[in-house]
Amino acid sequence: MRSHEGLLIGEHFLLGDYAAAEGAIMAGCRFFAGYPITPATEIAERMSTRLPQVGGIYIQMEDELASMNAILGASWSGAKSMTATSGPGFSLMMENLGLGIMLETPCVLVNVQRGGPSTGLPTLVGQQDMMQARWGSHGDYEIIALSPNSPQELFDLTIRAFNLAEKFRTPVLVMTDAEVGHMTERVIIPPPEEIELIQRPLVRKGDVDPDHFRIYRDPKSGDDGDVSPMAIAGEGFRFHVTGLTHDERGYPAMNAEASEWNIKRLVKKIRLHRDEIIQLEERHLEDAEIIVVSYGISARTSLWPIEQAQKEGIRIGYLRLITVWPFPEERIRALAKNIRAFVVPEINDGQILREVERCAAGQAQVIGVNRLGGDILEPQQVLSALRAAAGKPDTAEADMS
């Protein structure tokens, strides 16, 4: 049984950002490095108060580049680590996010999205970083990104993010938004013995010869989709950690063979476990003719329009992306064969829409419902799109009255 000392347990009325911080602490996070940025600052503020209460370390860095680097270093010292940011800070973290992927470093990055580009809308909502989450760093790789739609899920999915990071030895993103981050709702925090925590695979002294330790799987072993055990810095193992293409010992290897081995391993360890990683919420899909695909606050905005459309006799299904990356390609392809259209509400110019279009491959129409940041979607916008997809006249004026 884990200790309850310093942990917040029970039923609370919490800001979403605070719920993310509490989820991190419950997951075992004991190091946070960050730089204040709206609307993610409350996560840093909460961690600055709470981490010392549970024996952890909080450090405010000089910028977001240093913040991402710091959590990578902390992770190699054995700590579970996290940072939080938004918009411009997320852009600054991209290079070191790629470093974390190449080094196979477990850590968590929470992005409380606001409107962009550039400084954009610091205090107002957006969902404009969703494609950047997948493709923001250079090179080929896979990423895991989760999208909560409530303070409760910010708590739950932050824990899940740490578990996925530890299991697959990779940075994991929590892609929330300003509306969910600044929303205050009931959050139920169970005692720690009721929460499953996953710890990274470790190698200890005595397990192997420290002078002949291979920090990555042997490329000739055929198990390049597996996750290599991790050695903690300072425990006596002789190994090298570098962002350069490297061999199984971690030492630089500047050749095509090593590159092929590295990239395949980074990609396979996620792709071969997609079914375990991908999490969806599905409703009324069995006989649906129209399916709403959404995430975060936009998925919540879609619930009333779906209910109204169903009352009008339109068969509407609901597919919420709790895991956005890896994208649920197979599920979208299977659904596309039997429906008229997907409707994709999001606060951007159609980012996840393009993924749905790619997977639908012309088998079903794909309709975007978009707002370019600053406010949530109007429910009427979604309802009008549902009617259009079903070929029914829009009665917006009657609805508004």
The number of distinct β-strands equals 15
Assembly of the depicted chains: single chain
Cα distance spanning the termini: 57 Å
Shape: globular
Strand percentage: 15-25%
The percentage helix is 25-40%
Stretches where pLDDT falls below 50 for ≥5 residues?
Answer: none
CATH topology of the largest domain: Rossmann fold
Look at the structure and give the CATH class of the largest domain. Answer: Alpha Beta
How many DSSP H or I helices? 15
Mean pLDDT: 93
Structure classification: alpha/beta
CATH superfamily of the largest domain: Thiamin diphosphate (ThDP)-binding fold, Pyr/PP domains
CATH architecture of the largest domain: 3-Layer(aba) Sandwich
Any idea what the radius of gyration is?
22 Å
What is the makeup of the main sheet?
8 strands, mixed
Total discrete domains? 2
SSE string, helices as H and strands as E: EHEHEHEHEEHEHEHEHHEEHHEEHEHEHH
